[in-house]
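Tokens for chain A. Residues wanted.
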């Protein structure tokens, strides 16, 4: 194993993979990725693959728009079909309060150039003909939102990064970080030590543990989210549906399977990733309320993964106060897949040129010292 590297990335999920590629593309090729298990073994290989831009704060909207812009040509750029389906996101609302929140969100999104629209229930049914429109009071729709296959995305990023010299060490766990005079001077792993230039904490729901190794406290908490996939049927929906009422999300994969899940507000923080019957019951009940015809389908598989959740449901990105070579890239709170290509660009700008973009400033670890306004729409 190498004994030093310009950049050490901890975690081979979509964040680590996208950043490694972005750095290598710019000529920063002495990059070493440590992955405790294998690529996609964390949240990236367990997620719904949704890519939305309909957020409620300007920086989240901008970051997501930037990411979609990258995703639109990513298959071509990586030479891998990432199964990008740009059928939009339909966001459902069931109360007057939710409709008002949607109206405000669309106004802000339109101001920033996002072509989202507030729809009546009847208009929503035109987007998704199988929808029972009597369940909702309104919906929003953005035709440029999308979904894709996270395995393909990570595989593509890593393949192209490794071709350019990036080294991926699988089954290699980071067990400690040695700090001296405001810098991480050693990354200790289960297979030996490495002297790093910069260290990037892209360890998903385990980022808090990694940060603690360097004496840094992150406010992140791991929260289980369950998800299920059905048998395939003829392709009938290119739109991804989510509800701000109950947190359900579902879409149809290129193979025709319906993939989706629903959060549980009672879920306690922790590393439990077991599957439950309670989730399946709740998910099926809510799914069939919106689209009764899906009751004909059988569930093939269910699984769970961990959201890495921050107090304002927004990621922690950029340099760490007091530790000049330690970069955070975590805390995605359930929407890390969708923004990964844009996050990689901002972090690469910082690593390459020392540029702290406005996005990195807004989403820095330091914000937790101040009073903060969180992201209101926390669904896939
Ligand atoms: C059920 C579910 C549905 C989701 N749906 C969506 C969605 O539709 N759209 C969306 O954008 N996001 C979604 N997400 C969130 C998304 O999956 C994550 O935000 C994203 O995958 C985070 O990627 P990551 O690379 O930062 O972390 P991860 O993919 O979790 O990768 C972190 C990696 O770090 C490794 N690691 C941890 N500790 C160590 C160590 N000590 N040493 C070495 N390696 C270590 C882990 O093994 C892991 O592979 C969903 C998540 C879940 C669980």
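Reply:
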């Amino acid at each position: 194993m190498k004994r030093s590297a310009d950049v050490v990335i901890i975690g081979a999920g979509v964040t680590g993979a996208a950043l490694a590629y972005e750095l290598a593309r710019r000529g920063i090729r002495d990059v070493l990725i440590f992955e405790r298990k294998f690529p996609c073994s964390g949240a990236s290989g367990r997620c719904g693959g949704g890519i939305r831009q309909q957020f409620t704060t300007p920086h989240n909207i901008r970051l997501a728009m930037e990411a979609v812009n990258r995703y639109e040509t990513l298959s071509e750029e990586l030479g891998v079909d990432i199964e990008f389906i740009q059928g939009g996101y339909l966001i459902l609302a069931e109360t007057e309060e939710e409709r008002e929140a949607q109206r405000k969100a669309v106004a802000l999104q339109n101001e920033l150039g996002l072509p989202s629209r507030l729809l009546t229930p009847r208009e929503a049914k035109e987007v998704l003909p199988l929808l029972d429109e009597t369940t909702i009071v309104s919906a929003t729709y953005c035709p440029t939102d999308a979904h894709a296959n996270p395995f393909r995305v990570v595989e593509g990023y890593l393949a192209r990064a490794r071709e350019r010299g990036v080294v991926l060490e699988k089954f290699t766990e980071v067990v400690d970080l040695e700090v001296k005079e405001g810098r991480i001077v050693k990354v200790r792993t289960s297979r030996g030590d490495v002297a790093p230039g910069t260290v990037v904490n892209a360890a998903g729901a385990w980022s808090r543990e990694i940060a603690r190794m360097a004496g840094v406290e992150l406010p992140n908490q791991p929260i289980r989210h369950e998800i299920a996939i059905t048998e395939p049927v003829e392709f009938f929906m290119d739109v991804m549906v989510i509800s701000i009422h109950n947190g359900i999300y579902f879409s149809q994969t290129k193979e025709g399977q319906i993939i989706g899940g629903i959060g549980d507000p009672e879920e306690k923080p922790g590393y439990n990733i077991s599957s439950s019957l309670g989730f399946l019951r709740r998910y099926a009940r809510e799914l069939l309320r919106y689209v009764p015809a899906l009751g004909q389908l059988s569930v093939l598989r269910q699984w769970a993964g961990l959201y890495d959740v921050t107090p304002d449901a927004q990621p922690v990105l950029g340099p760490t106060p007091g530790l000049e070579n330690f970069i955070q890239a975590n805390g995605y709170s359930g929407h890390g897949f969708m923004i990964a290509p844009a996050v990689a660009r901002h972090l690469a700008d910082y690593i390459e040129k020392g540029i702290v973009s406005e996005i990195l400033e807004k989403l820095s670890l330091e914000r937790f010292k101040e009073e903060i306004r969180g992201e209101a729409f926390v669904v896939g």
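The chain has a mean pLDDT of 96. Residues 65 and 180 are 39 Å apart (CA to CA).
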